[in-house]
Amino acid sequence: MAVRLFITILLLFHQISSSIQQSGQVDQFTSSIDRDEILFGDRRTLKNETQQELVETRGKICELHTEIARKRNETKDKDVEMSRLTAKMAQIEANLMGRIAETKRKNDDLVAQLRTQNTEVRDGKAKIGELEGKINALQSKISGFETQMIRTMTLALDPDGWSYLAKTASWYKVIVQEMTFDQAEAYCASRKGHLVTIQSEEENDLVQKLAKTVHPFHGFWIGLKGNSNKENAFEWTDGSSVDFTNWDPEDSDTNSYTHTYVRFST
């Protein structure tokens, strides 16, 4: 619009200059009266044209101002919209970051809880295993107590020939019946017992007392025998260690004996 206005003003001055030149040419060929009329007419024409041009120029200037104002309003509206969109995007981003942070916090909490639960499960399994071991041990003891109680009750009902030793909580009896060592061991096992093992002085004294009930020329087997895989080293048939020994030195030659018996001699 500014270029169009400049061109319009330039054309206006060009027309004025042309009119003045034409007036100078008229002055050379006309009289003063005619010249005045011509100049007056030219001035009036020029004035009219100038006014017309000014009116058009003012109109164009108004249009230009209007266009500029409209453009400014559009730009302002766009700036407002851009500001609104920018603020909205910033809010969306802030909300998203907040949700991400919250999700991460919850995830960390879940991971911590899972680790705690896994630790508790492992500890629980360890405790369960420990309790199961204790339960099995108690059940084994209870089973042994039950067996001992049944045996004790049976012997209490028919105590003929049986002797009880409180230290070992066991019953002892001499079976007066001729049999080999293996037969004697099997006989005791068939009755849920075993050949006597001597682990203390009290038990040794009881066995000696029982030996006095047998004929001096006879004896009875005890649960001590040599292990052929260990150069006939003596061991108890119930698997217990041979910690207590109370035999004469001449009777301890393991290369000569594989089984032992007790005999009372006067």
UniProtKB/TrEMBL annotation:
Keywords (A to Z) from UniProt: Coiled coil, Signal
InterPro entries to which the protein is assigned, alphabetical: C-type_lectin-like, C-type_lectin-like/link_sf, C-type_lectin/snaclec_domain, CTDL_fold
Domain named C-type lectin: residues: 172-251
Coiled coil ranges: 100-148
SMART domains: CLECT (SM00034)
Signal peptide feature range: 1-18
UniProt protein name: C-type lectin domain-containing protein
The species this protein was found in: Mesorhabditis belari
